Automatic annotation (TrEMBL):
This is Threonine synthase. The modification N6-(pyridoxal phosphate)lysine is found at residue 131. Belongs to the threonine synthase family. The lineage of its organism: Bacteria, Pseudomonadati, Acidobacteriota, Terriglobia, Terriglobales. Keywords: Coiled coil, Lyase, Pyridoxal phosphate. GO terms for biological process: threonine biosynthetic process. It comes from Alloacidobacterium dinghuense. Residues 426-453 form a coiled coil. PANTHER family: CYSTATHIONINE BETA-SYNTHASE. CDD domains: Thr-synth_1.
């Protein structure tokens, strides 16, 4: 395939290659690190020639919102001047992803003392998670390259997105999942979209190891987040956030930390926007992990991100149950470049934060709620000030893991030792279904009881 306006640069040794030189596992043969997409005409660190006009691009992107063409109606491909990864736009595979809402969280702002807290809800994408933004770009590349099969290892959201976009393109999809460690709401999506779904007797990282061997031995295109074209799509929510704020970026962007591609992609976007003159400053990008799946937090605490020791991941927030994140070096770089932080939060803190976001009427999957739990900790540490503007990235829809939500409100989710000092706050947020006789009097009595709470 001819080069389509971009190159690929190793994030370790800085070796630059063309697309046709990429290996099946997307890792540099020299040092083993991952690649990132760069645009020679304007990327930071490359030759500065033919940089696009920032004002013209802002105007064009806004105008496309009124267009009826499929590419323009996508919140990803609407920004295609930042995505020179295809030779032919006819190869775009889209489900009209992106253009997701930015909600103001008024109750959260009041309870935390922060004047302006917003949630960028990527769970409002077609398959219910942020993965759609990256899947439309990476699968479009696979489609243009002529692949019939695409594949991923997944804790749920990736498999749902990949299988949906593959079905849309008339391609076939292979999903490897860790047996018994996936939310059924997510697995059901992959099945519904026609994926060959295989449950392996291992964890997520074990699924990744098996898949890396598969793509070496069969013409199957890997669509996990090691694929640099995934990150190109996943950077577009940053453009949407900046556009919503009239190109004045927030002070803080707080992101869940699983495989760490999301923070990497968003950081890349803000750095590119600043380089092009679309924005004048960078937000602090912070990553929040669950205590039981916290390799990045441990790495930064022990050696400032120089090395990372994988952990055996344990958390009920299944989307971030990853002990050996592929994009950790990229995430470290983004945190350091933007002046952000990395924190860990407990299972109880995650569950409470999820209920508090739900009380705003929008809801999210458990992994998304680490952002609010992490914000609380950053406030306590004096790292977020009351007059600053904060955006929480919500990665998945609340229906992705309804069993988690039901167990929380029934009181079955958390063990006694996990609740600790949060019991009063948790009790206030729980709303279990109440069984009553079929009587109006009974219903009215219950209304009176609740009214005095």
């Amino acid at each position: 395939m001819e080069n389509s306006g971009h190159l690929l640069r190793c994030t370790g040794c800085a070796r630059v290659i063309e697309q046709r030189e990429l290996k099946e596992n997307f890792r540099c043969p020299e040092c083993g690190d991952l690649y990132e997409v760069v645009y020679p005409s304007w990327s930071a660190g490359m030759a500065e020639i033919r940089k696009p006009n920032a004002s013209a691009m802002r105007w064009l992107w806004k105008e496309r919102c009124c267009s009826n063409t499929e590419a323009d109606q996508s919140g990803v491909w609407r920004f295609r001047e930042m995505l020179h990864i295809l030779d032919d736009e006819a190869n775009i595979v889209s489900l009209r992803e992106g253009n997701t809402p930015l909600y103001e969280l008024r109750r959260v702002a009041e309870s935390t003392g922060i004047e302006h807290v917003f949630a960028k809800h990527q769970g409002m994408n077609p398959t219910g998670s942020f993965k759609d933004a990256g899947m439309t770009t990476a699968l479009s590349v696979a489609h243009e390259l002529g692949f019939d099969w695409v594949a991923c290892a997944s804790t749920g959201n990736t498999s749902a997105a990949m299988s949906a976009y593959a079905a849309r393109a008339g391609m076939r999809s292979l999903v490897l999942i860790p047996q018994g460690k996936i939310a059924w709401g997510k697995l059901s999506q992959a099945m519904d979209y026609g994926a060959l779904t295989l449950q392996l007797r291992t964890d997520f990282d074990g699924c990744v190891r098996v898949l890396n061997e598969v793509v070496k031995r069969a013409p199957v295109y890997l669509l996990n987040s090691v694929n640099p074209y995934r990150l190109e799509g996943q950077k577009t929510p940053a453009l949407e956030i900046a556009e919503t704020f009239d190109w004045e970026v927030p002070d803080h962007l707080i992101v869940p930390g699983g495989n760490l591609a999301n923070s990497s992609a968003l950081g890349k976007a803000f750095l590119e926007m600043k380089h092009l003159g679309l924005v004048t400053k960078l937000p602090k990008i912070s990553v929040i992990q669950a205590e039981g799946a916290n390799p990045l937090y441990r790495s930064l605490l022990s050696n400032s991100g120089e090395t990372l020791e994988p952990v055996e991941a344990h958390t009920r927030a299944s989307a971030i149950r990853i002990g050996n994140p592929a994009s950790w070096k990229k995430a470290v770089r983004v945190i350091q470049q933007t002046g952000g932080y990395c924190e860990q939060v407990s299972e109880a803190e995650i569950a409470l934060a999820k209920a508090e976001i739900g009380a705003e009427g929008i809801g999210c999957e458990p992994a998304s709620a680490v952002t609010l739990a992490g914000l609380k900790k950053l406030i306590q540490q004096g790292k977020v000030q009351s007059n600053e503007k904060v955006v929480l990235l919500l990665t998945g829809h609340t229906l992705k893991d309804s069993d988690y939500t039901i167990a929380y409100h029934r009181g079955d989710l958390l063990k006694e030792g996990e609740i600790k000092d949060l019991r009063p706050e948790i009790e206030l947020t729980r709303r279990n279904a109440v069984e009553l006789e079929a009587s109006a009097d009974e219903v009215l009595r219950e209304l009176e009881r609740v009214a005095v709470r």
